[in-house]
Sequence to fold (111 residues):
Amino acid sequence: MHKKIMFFIVALALALGAASVAMAAEEAAAAEGLPPNVKVAIAIGAGFGISIAAFGGALSQSRGLTSALDGIARNPAASGKIVTPMIIGLAMIESLVIYSLLVSLLLVFKL
Fold:
């Protein structure tokens, strides 16, 4: 459990670092044309952002599916009450990954 918490903290730090690079790049773009090093930072930040989001989304979806299938295996009569919240949860997780993709694409199209 300790390793999972440390992994989450490192992933969060990388995501926040990418966001700070993006914010710095946006301020630079407002002041003047984008210098080459800012373009590189935007591209790297967008790549890290979407990769971390996809990895986190895949992990959380797999955990949700595992828990739901485990609950259905233990009590098959409760499958109707388990499936609907599971689908809603998976859709919300996927929407966060799609939101990250949108932010990454907006950053890259700024180049």
About this structure: Helices lie at 2-31, 36-74, 79-109. The mean pLDDT is 80. The radius of gyration is 19 Å. The first helix runs from residue 2 to 31.
